[in-house]
Amino acid sequence: MKAILIAGALSLLLTLLGTRLAIKVLVRKGYGQLIRDDGPTSHHTKRGTPTMGGLVIIIASVFGYFIAKLATDTRPSASALLLLFLFCGLGLIGFIDDFIKVSKQRNLGLRSKAKFIGQIVIGLIFASLAIGWEDDTGRTPITHAISFTRDLKGWELPTALLVIWVLLMIAGASNGVNLTDGLDGLATGAAVMIFGAFVVINIWQSNQNCSKVPGLKCYEVRDPLDLAVVAAALTGACFGFLWWNASPAKIFMGDTGSLSLGGAMAGFALMTRTELLLVVIGGLFVAITASVILQVGYFKLSGGKRIFRMAPLQHHFELLGWDEITIVVRFWIISGLCVATGLGIFYGEWVSGV
After folding, report:
1. Structural domain harbouring 287
2. For the segment 325-347, what is each residue's pLDDT rounded down to a tens digit?
3. Burial of 90 by CB count in 10 Å (0-12 exposed, 13-18 middle, 19+ buried)?
4. What is the pTM assigned to this prediction?
């Protein structure tokens, strides 16, 4: 528990102070956000706002985790190292994308094919290690079963399909956060709640782990307490970054932040055996992603008609005349309700023992 508190507090402090420094450096270099011409006109005032702030979140989270391990004289676990690899690997892809955009002053960074290949490479390395890295008891960070609040019996996948499932989880979560990151503080605030939920889930799974309290309700999750340290570091880092990212934003996280945070959410869901529960906990990201899929699909099938004035969903409400801060706060409320519902389902399953 001491490591959890240290990681969260230190990451929070680092982003609070580090983001201010990053803003000065990025402004000096002229690395500002480019704005889509076809987006809401109110966004044009944001042109030039520093971007790539996700780099601060990544550095603070990694630093907070390892300092917490040093302070408590404990070794990093395989699960935590794999999660941090996924987090940083996707962040690197996002950083390259952001850097190309700001350095060449164009909306197109990495080509979609190159970005997709990068995500697949990182995902394949993560999946292969997570499936085969056994501890002394033979447990691996990821099992072959699809999970909800724990592994579902009879839902085991062969290795090839499992790898595809892992890649789909990573792509879906990272792109979901990327699509949500369109208004000041929206994705960051929602991420705080979701990573906070994984702190609770991991602590609970540690207290009820089969290695400690064998029984019908115990959890066969590897390294849950160390995963809680990583989740606390991410929660603190996002919370500190939100101070500067909230409306009016002084900095944006960019693809550096959105891809890495989304990948981390997928990693937590896979390792805590809550893969399908992530659909509930991350309900806001699911709804916003679904709005894009529906918009594009209906546009093609109907010959040019639209369901929403603009997708993703948050921009639809902007074009209806809602203030940006109103949309963000109300979407945060929705995200909070989704997280609370997900935690309720997780605890309810344990209580009922079903």
Report:
1. 76-225+254-352
2. 999 999 999 999 999 999 999 99
3. buried
4. 0.93
